[in-house]
Specification:
The chain is built from six helices and 32 strands. The chain is mainly β. The strands form seven sheets. It has a seven-stranded mixed β-sheet, with helices on one face. Strands 13-14-15-17-24-18-29 form a seven-stranded mixed β-sheet, covered by helices on one side. Helix 1 runs parallel beside helix 2. It is globular, with a radius of gyration of 23 Å. Bound molecules: fe (ii) ion (FE2) (2 copies).
């Protein structure tokens, strides 16, 4: 990935085109597309506007001003920084632009437009509005899901539901959206990764140009030949708050009012191997112009431990600081993979997260963990600590220590609200819009209780059983262990699709503060995509306000 000023760049070729269109674009086309917002370092005063264009943009810039009435003519002009990369599989160069809009007034609405000297629409450039976050303790709403894909059904794992999911965010009009990983599954379409990202970006723009979408990387953001961990496509498109390490953009924190949001890159700690993979029998052939060698069958990009402990050290430091900050009532973590999932046909739970991060969540009283990865909805009871040696090997039945999370209560609270100062609630929100909903959950046939698969060791590729001797066909084994999912509180068996809506009430001094969570699901979407999201359940988290 390289960075350069946006002006005076030589034009270059590209074949990116707007949503669902594959026409050849002029090589010097700087028309903005895939426009999206993220929070800057302080959401009350800063927002980043990011976009892409088919070719290199000349003088790429944002015009921004406070609305009422819209007066972009009187706006500030903010020049964008260009970041580009050349896809390591098909050789296409992707141009992205990032403009940091600083010194905003908190809790105010702004109008902005995005353009360049070679913007085809420069007479009437794209424009939208956004709202800065409130400063200090205030009420606000956010939404979340993961595993979104694109609405273009020719791409593997894409589905029309992906469009409805983006529209659902707009229906609830949150201050911002958390997109918890597996953004577009470009790595499942290895010859066309930039085109898949473009379809994703243009779909998401319907909402993300109007309110920040804050992502975390999932296993499907890991791509061959695109950087050491395979995250170049992701990192080139997003500008995210600094974490002070050499892994910029992969994990970060931001704070709004009394809530601290922490976004993590769980591929660093999970045991499961689920990044880019060549199952065979054919090798994966990068385009000749890339200069890359064929990638042999059985190759997977396994990045477990990639930060060498830096991420966990950052997390510990960040959580310790939050514990000592009496202005922070709530700690919400988003990551892609799951520590507590009892999906039967999905990935299940991963012991890596339980080992590395759950003890930190316990010690520093994280309230909520929002994940995706398994394409369903599941809610845990508040959990703290774990039971040892409570699992068994899936093949042999021998006892395995899965670090089974321990629920602090196992019934809906009598007063109607969970006090998460006693335990962390995990939500699986993997129902964005893929073509692979998973709404079937594990059951222990012996006792009828909920059962979870647990991955307790690396599942690296192995020769597929039954393959013709000598055939280069590989698979990745599923979870190696099982446990009773004593921590599972609610599972949606009707559909894999939905969106969670969170309303934070800061409460009054010396009183209680609360978060009301409503999960809406798209009933019937497993058969026919639908715009209709109905309420599935409501829960309230409430605790004593600090400070
Ligand atoms: Fe996924
Ligand atoms: Fe995933």
């Amino acid at each position: 990935m390289k960075e350069a000023g946006a002006t005076g760049l030589a034009a270059a070729t590209s074949t990116l085109a707007p949503f669902g269109v594959r026409a050849q674009a002029p090589p010097d086309d700087g028309t903005p597309e895939q426009i999206h917002l993220t929070w800057g370092e302080d959401p009350a005063t800063s927002v980043v506007v990011s976009w892409a264009s088919p070719g290199a943009a000349v003088n790429a810039r944002v015009l921004v001003g406070e609305t009422l009435p819209a007066s972009v003519a009187a706006a500030r002009v903010i020049h964008a920084v260009q970041r580009s990369y050349t896809d390591g599989l098909n050789g296409q160069t992707v141009y992205t632009y990032h403009a940091r809009v600083e010194r905003l007034r908190p809790d105010a609405t702004f109008r902005y437009s995005v353009t360049a000297d070679n913007d085809r629409h420069r007479e009437q450039p794209f424009s939208a509005t956004f709202r800065s976050a409130p400063a200090g303790r205030a009420a606000f709403r956010w939404t979340s899901y993961g595993d979104l894909a694109t609405p273009v059904t020719s791409w593997t794992l894409s589905s029309p539901q992906s469009r409805f999911a983006v529209e659902a965010v707009e229906r609830f009009k949150p201050l911002f959206h958390l997109l918890n990983g597996d953004l577009c599954y470009a790595n499942m379409n290895p010859a066309s990764q930039p085109a898949v990202w473009a379809d994703f970006g243009n779909n998401v723009q319907v909402s993300a140009a109007w309110r920040p979408w804050m992502p975390c990387p999932g296993n499907h953001e890991i791509e061959f030949n695109n950087g050491e961990q395979g995250f170049n496509s992701y990192l080139t498109r997003y500008t995210l708050p600094h974490n002070g390490t050499r892994f910029a953009g992969l994990w970060y924190q931001f704070r709004i009012g009394s809530a601290l949001f922490i976004s993590l890159s769980a591929d660093d700690v999970v045991y499961q191997d689920s990044g880019a993979f060549v199952p065979g029998p054919a090798a994966l052939q990068p385009a000749p112009g890339t200069g890359h060698a064929p990638i042999e069958p059985g190759t997977s990009l396994y990045i477990h431990g990639y930060s060498g402990g830096e991420q966990t050290a950052w997390l510990e430091k960040t959580l310790a600081a939050a514990s000592n900050d009496h202005g922070i009532d709530w700690i919400i973590v988003q990551m892609h993979q799951d520590a507590l999932s009892s999906s039967r046909n999905g990935n299940g739970s991963d012991k890596g997260i339980r080992e590395r991060w759950l003890p930190l969540f316990d010690r520093h009283r994280v309230d909520l963990v929002l994940c995706g990865h398994d394409h369903d909805y599941e809610r845990s009871w508040p959990v703290r600590g774990c039971n040892r040696d409570a699992g068994r090997d899936a093949a042999t039945g021998i006892t395995v220590d899965t670090l089974q999370p321990q629920p602090v209560i196992t019934a809906e609270p009598v007063d109607g609200s969970f006090d998460t100062s006693h335990g962390t609630i995990h939500l699986i929100l993997g129902g964005g819009g893929t073509s692979a909903p998973l709404d079937v959950f594990g059951v222990n046939a012996a006792n009828g209780l909920a059962q979870a698969k647990v991955i307790t060791r690396p599942n690296r590729p192995v020769t597929r059983p039954g393959a013709t001797p000598g055939a280069q066909v590989f698979t990745k084994p599923g979870a190696d262990a099982l446990e009773d999912a004593i921590w599972s509180a609610r599972r949606d068996t009707q559909t894999g699709y939905g969106i969670a809506v969170f309303d934070l009430d800061p409460g009054m001094a010396a009183g209680k503060t609360s978060i009301t969570i409503r999960y809406y699901h798209a009933q019937g979407a497993d058969r026919v995509p639908t715009a209709n999201y109905e309420l599935f359940e409501t829960m309230v988290l409430a605790k004593q306000r600090r400070g």
